[in-house]
TrEMBL record:
Coiled coil: none
Descriptive protein name: Uncharacterized protein LOC108053295
Gene field: LOC108053295
SUPFAM superfamilies, A to Z: Alkaline phosphatase-like
Biological source species: Drosophila rhopaloa (Fruit fly)
Listed Pfam families: DUF229
Cellular component annotations (GO), alphabetically ordered: extracellular space
PANTHER family: DUF229 DOMAIN CONTAINING PROTEIN-RELATED, FI08016P-RELATED
Amino acid sequence: MNQNIADFEATVKFNNVTESVEVSVGDNTFSNLMAILTGYNPSSALEKVCDWHQRGCLDQTPFIWKYFRNASYLTAFAEDETGMSTFNYQKPGFVESPTDFYLRPFQKAFESDLKTWKCEDCSMRYCIGRRITSSYVYDMARDFARRFVDERPIWGLFWSNSFSHDSYQMPSKMENYVLQYLLDYQADGVFEQSIMVFLSDHGSRWGEITSLPSVFLEERLPSMFIYLPPWFRAQYPEYATAYVDCPKCQSLFYPVGESRTCEDAGIPEHFCTCVPYKRLTANWARRIPPRVIGRMNEYLAGRNLSGICSELTLKYIYKTEMKIGLEHDFDGDLPVVDVTTYRTKFQVDQNTADFEATVKFNNVTESVEVSVPTISRLDRYEYVSTCVDDKIDKMYCICKSD
């Protein structure tokens, strides 16, 4: 979050927006946008809606744009980088156009028929033809608003990955580019009639930045800013201040309890930033990472991947931290407990891959409780996991063939 604010300082000042706290609820864009757009995370959607791995399921999912369309809004959805787009990467995508205006068919044509360029060590296209890839998305947003904002209510989601996903340094270089689009929207009169949410879904998760102490917060606290027109703030002051709270499955405009927890807000323990952790120096803490790796190997075996994925072995422990309750003196002695929550960051021998896990460890039985799909991979893995197709499997499989 702090990195995003620093990268877009002028943009934030231009919009005169209020910052709201947003916490990631999952490891990737799909998890976080599903929560924002449907109220479901992938697991609850799988249980209560349909199997989103199957073709046609996403068309049945109650995305928020359906409610706006039923209320006579015109809707639009645009996203750049079609190969890595939220609902198509390792997923079947939509059978029918999800919104009234949908950029994907045109974007695919641009990508296939025009020359493209990628920055060094980037997997996404920075330029298509003679234009920056994200400009196709932002231009659609501008055209959509200019054409219809005076005629009828509109709702749109315009999402770019191409310049921010692979490099934590690139957004700062793109600030003036993004700011110019906002100035254009202002000149068009769009802001006078619109509520704008300027947000991301997670911070940087790999590369040099992962060595910084702040990376735990960087990954889990994406930025979110909400712009309300001056007339709206003046006419509805109670709504203009109520959106600072965003509880689970509740409207942004209703009061919430002051003592709610991450669990109350639907945020998994691994992504919770509300409770502090204290670094351990005792030798016994070294017992935790090998047992986490054992669970990861069990996961691969349970997925019948042991034949093609390397067995993981511990190379190095960066740190292990213990969860400390807010009522506990952080500078005092650690509480004595048999079972509690720990966070550990470690490296395996295979491809020197880095991982971070949040686990429950039993000091008596020396057993760990961890959901492997919640373990974060902290280095890039697209070129060492080509032997598997599943997005989650790719994070833990280091192919023997690669």
